[in-house]
Task: structure prediction
Amino acid sequence: MAEPAARIPDDPGERAAFLRALAEGGDAEAQALYAQLLLDGNGVAQDAAAGFAWFNRAAAQGHLMSLNMVGRCYDLGWGVAIDKARAAECYRIAAEQGLDWAMYNYATLLALGHGVTEDKAAAFGWFQKAARMGNAKAMNYVGSFHEDGWVVSRDMAKAARHYARAAEGGDFRGCFNHARMLSDKGRTEEALTWIERAGTTATPAFVEKAGAFLDASSVPAFRARGRAAIERGAARC
Result:
């Protein structure tokens, strides 16, 4: 999210107070930024319900990322009861107005059939739109569709290209999938580098799941050094 024009203080507490003043004055961008601080407990006491309320105020002014974040709150139960259908509606509206993150989130719900009727073809279309806008997470999912043959014919070359783009864009799943594709070409040392890079931004749950996958891999280098690589990356966070 872009920041308000005025210089924002560096001190977390001062930053929160500064943004709150602007937010109370009706600045939609400040409302969105302050909402995120409340959600994270950054410079202010964590209050997901208050964050949700501020995202709603900004969304009512047409702030698309805030509308997407209202969807995230409904999707994950941040400050409000989980409601996948309302999450999908928020994502859809923001996606149709051109927000790539909303496209990605809406596509995810369509692919899973959460809050909407499962529609992998529609999901693939939205992932493609977000990927064309540079969304690395969407690029990874486009790669998955090609690898698994969902909606489109299975095409490992296309999957590998999309995973490489996702990895270069910083998506941790893309980094890991890119590493898998590299290992298939015998480029295991390069693959291990990407596995370590995946660890730097991966969630703890993903690190553990990936570690188990690597431990059981048919690739000797992955079995011997894969878990250490991704855990080394995670330790750098």
